[in-house]
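Q: What residues go here?
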């Protein structure tokens, strides 16, 4: 039995228990599962993707951009660590913005995050295809078969059940970190920093003898490198999407996300320092590579052993691919359960209690985008163009969602100061403001890059289509999901408190 309730410009349907029975999740994750989910989601960015920024600003530009983006993510993760146990729903970013800014704010944030979680695994599987092509020497034209094969396998694992998903996440994350540690230990005796890492000249050309300037393309190069530095941390913010599958989200969510962030900071600076510094590699060559870690292993161990190690290195990419498929399913599920997206997308598997419809739909959409870019850009143009285009599309969606989440944090501090906060951000509002400023700067420099601008504009068009869909259809067919009920109850509470305070004045 369903009844309707109008709240402003949005119409809600109150559904019966059967609706949510078909959309149930299972609790399983503890703090280390959450840590693995956060680190695993990001770790592929330490294997491929970040290195494309070396061509934008050289090694020095990449280092400074990494430090700037680290500050942005610290502001973001501390804000999320405060909001997620206070609002422990699967909606994550959307639920934060919904409570702070109403249905339109929730939808726009959810749509931006949806772009990030659909396209990020697409970027990762593109680089998996690059690694597998290099290892097995298959024709480059067959890369789409690698993409489809990996999607099929890891969709099956994620659909099988949350227990298996988290067990696989912990294992592959530890293996991925172990592979990176092996690379660092192997690289340290084989680096020539000045000769190799600084082998880009002031005009952006490769210097055969190295010894180039620290900032070959100046501060403009640093800023142009920001979108690629994002790849070293992107998706750590997905942890709140596991809130309804966490055993104790109020205790474990802050611990998991903060531990994950500091793990990634150490790993990010190690890979930025060592990978371009390995003798025989260099920043100039790495800037065009789809498999930079494999290039490093080749230079250290030679082609034969490097292939074996690179096959192990693929685990790092798999860790992120697997975990972001998990996040994508929960993100689409939460928006669909509330009616922002078509409600059939939120139906969960009858026995496994996993959002299989959402995960499959997201995968099909991602593959469609990948094939469109593959055939429109041209397979012969290489990883730097195709992977970079997909990467910038994902980063654009992420930056918009970060701005909205940081704004939600500030508004929640103002509107709901008395809400229970099991964890309080030590960076507070200034940290959130830094997040907004750096994210906006990153988007600005994305739009200045003519190579990747078309992909960013395509995402903006997708936003426009989503806004029209919500305005015409979705806002008239909303569902009172847990996120929506929580937001409405606390809005009423805040209004009563403001009225009481005004009466006392």
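A:
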């Amino acid at each position: 039995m369903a009844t309707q309730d109008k709240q402003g410009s949005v119409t809600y349907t109150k559904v019966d228990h059967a609706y949510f029975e078909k959309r149930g999740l299972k609790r399983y994750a503890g703090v280390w599962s959450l840590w693995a989910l956060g680190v695993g989601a990001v770790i592929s960015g330490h294997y491929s993707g970040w290195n494309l920024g070396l061509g934008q600003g050289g090694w020095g530009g990449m280092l400074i951009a990494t430090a700037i983006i680290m500050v942005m993510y610290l502001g973001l993760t501390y804000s999320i660590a405060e909001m997620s146990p206070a609002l422990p729903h699967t909606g994550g970013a959307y639920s934060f913005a919904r409570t702070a800014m109403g249905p339109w704010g929730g939808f726009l944030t959810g749509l931006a995050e949806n772009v990030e979680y659909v396209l990020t695994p697409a970027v990762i599987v593109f680089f998996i295809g690059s690694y597998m092509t290099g290892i097995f020497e298959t024709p480059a034209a067959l890369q789409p078969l690698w993409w489809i094969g990996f999607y099929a396998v890891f969709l099956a694992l994620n659909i099988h059940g949350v227990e298996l998903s988290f067990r696989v996440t912990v294992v592959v994350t530890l293996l991925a970190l172990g592979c990176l540690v092996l690379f660092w230990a192997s690289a340290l005796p084989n680096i020539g920093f000045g000769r190799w890492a600084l082998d880009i000249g002031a005009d952006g050309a490769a210097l055969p003898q190295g010894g180039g300037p620290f900032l070959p393309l100046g501060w403009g190069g640093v800023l142009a490198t920001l979108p690629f530095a994002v790849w070293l941390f992107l998706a750590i913010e997905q942890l709140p999407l596991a809130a309804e599958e966490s055993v104790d989200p109020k205790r474990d969510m802050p611990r998991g996300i903060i531990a994950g962030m500091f793990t990634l900071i150490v790993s990010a600076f190690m890979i930025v320092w060592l990978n371009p510094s390995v003798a025989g590699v260099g920043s100039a060559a790495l800037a065009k590579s789809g498999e930079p870690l494999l290039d490093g292993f080749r230079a250290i161990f030679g082609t034969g052993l490097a292939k074996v190690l690179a096959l192990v290195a693929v685990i790092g990419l798999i860790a992120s691919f697997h975990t972001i498929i998990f996040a994508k399913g929960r993100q689409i599920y939460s928006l669909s359960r509330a009616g922002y997206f078509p409600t059939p997308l939120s139906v969960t598997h009858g026995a496994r209690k996993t959002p299989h419809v959402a995960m499959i739909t997201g995968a099909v959409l991602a593959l469609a985008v990948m094939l469109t870019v593959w055939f429109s850009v041209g397979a012969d143009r290489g990883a730097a163009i195709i992977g970079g285009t997909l990467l910038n599309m994902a980063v654009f969606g992420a930056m918009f969602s970060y701005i909205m989440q940081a704004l939600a944090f500030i508004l929640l501090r103002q509107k709901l100061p008395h809400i229970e906060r099991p964890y309080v951000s030590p960076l507070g509002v200034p940290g959130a403001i830094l997040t907004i400023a750096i994210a906006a700067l990153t988007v600005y420099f994305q739009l200045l890059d003519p190579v990747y601008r078309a992909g960013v504009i395509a995402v903006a068009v997708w936003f426009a289509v989503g806004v029209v869909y919500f305005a015409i259809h979705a806002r008239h067919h909303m569902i009172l999901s847990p996120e929506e009920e929580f937001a409405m109850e606390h809005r009423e509470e805040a209004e009563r408190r403001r009225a009481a305070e005004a009466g006392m004045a």
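A: Context that may help when evaluating the design: The chain has one domain: 3-504. The CA atoms of residues 205 and 284 lie 8 Å apart.
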